[in-house]
User: What shape does this take?
Amino acid sequence: MNPKHLFLVSAASALLFSAAIMAADPYASTYQRIPAPPTVIENATILTGTGERLDSASILFADGAVQAVGESVESVRLDYEEIEVVDAQGRWVTPGLIDVHSHLGVYPSPGMVAHSDGNEATAPATPNVWAEHSLWPQDPGFTHALAGGVTSMQLLPGSANLFGGRTVTVKNLPRNSYQAMKFPGAPHGLKMACGENPKRVYGTGKGVTPGTRMGNVAGYRDQWAKAQKYIHDWQQYDELVEAGDTTAKEPERNLGLDTLAGVLTGDIKIHMHCYRADEMLLILDVAKEFGYSVGTFHHGVETYKIADELAEAGVCAAIWSDWWGFKMEAYDGILENVAMTDIPEGSCAIVHSDSSQLIQRLNIEAGKAMTSGRRMGLDITPEHAIRWITYNPAKSLGIEDQTGALEPGKMADVVIWSGNPFSVYTLADRVYLDGAAVYDRFDPALQPVSDFELGQSLEVSP
Assistant: This one.
């Protein structure tokens, strides 16, 4: 038998292992949608997130979900005796925006050492930590992002470590606890990092590994080998218990290996900070060696070089519109990266923020990427580009069956824009979460403010 397949998980055994270790989330979502009346938005230019553009069209939502879009609205509308009507003449409607890479809540504002809770930089492998346990719901960044049309986001640990910890996906509804923001049913992710960051944090004369890129890869392989053995030990235990062996000794629980095992059993998605094309290809080889899948590469300024390989592997690329050159591994970034990564059939290009500022104008970041693609001769339409900040990030997070597109049955996370959402002159006029209006540019009562900001003045004393 090939040694690298010795501990790969069979489907039957994985179920037993999952029952024993990957039990129900002990910090499960308590999110509750806000009750809201049935609503129809009329006379809008609608970008559905599925590649369609509907002009002078309507969308109807009720009970937290989209009920009808386009021509079918009129017949469905008859099912409701009372309905709120919004005339969106001259305005555009899209799904709520989704940022697949944010550190809001774990690196909240104001940015101070006391708030720096995103990197557990005490060891190169910390898959045992969960970003949600650092999440501060009072971060003013959440309400600022809501005013930019962002309705959901993934919050990640930082990139100091090879294995940085679990990620969490939230709905952008101000609440007192992170569980009340936690996106119901969203799978966990695991933040990993390659390249300069981990080797810089632990190397350069500190006497701690990794200090090189080869040390990075050795660190991954060591942890994955331990996770495979962990699964194997639990499988053997499960089999003995099922066979009636009352003397079987339960393996010792390891929280970090729980997370890594969750990746190997397919329950947890990999979100990997990685810039260079050669390193991304290397990581795909490591994934093959240990039998897991990479879900999304983040920050990949060189994904344009390997767009075909990423599409073939079914890996998403979450990237900036124009950040480059701020360190050596970011030096070969180009403005056309998003557009070129998006060319192959089956690709999954995403525009992300990684910034408390850019998340407030994620639509403009996508607009810049669309413009760069057009400049090189690609025919990129608004109905296509909107997928970079709606459906594709939902796919990356494993929530595309619930959100990311305006389709019947999906969450009514909706934004009404003052104009074309890819224009620098456009603002979000109104934002809906599960069909409830939670932000309105013209209504102070629907402009939520973090408790941390209450009573603060913008005036500066002389």
About this structure: The first strand starts at residue 39 and ends at 47. The domain at 3-30+97-402 is CATH 3.20.20.140 (TIM Barrel). Residues 213-242 form the longest helix (30 residues). The chain has a mean pLDDT of 93.
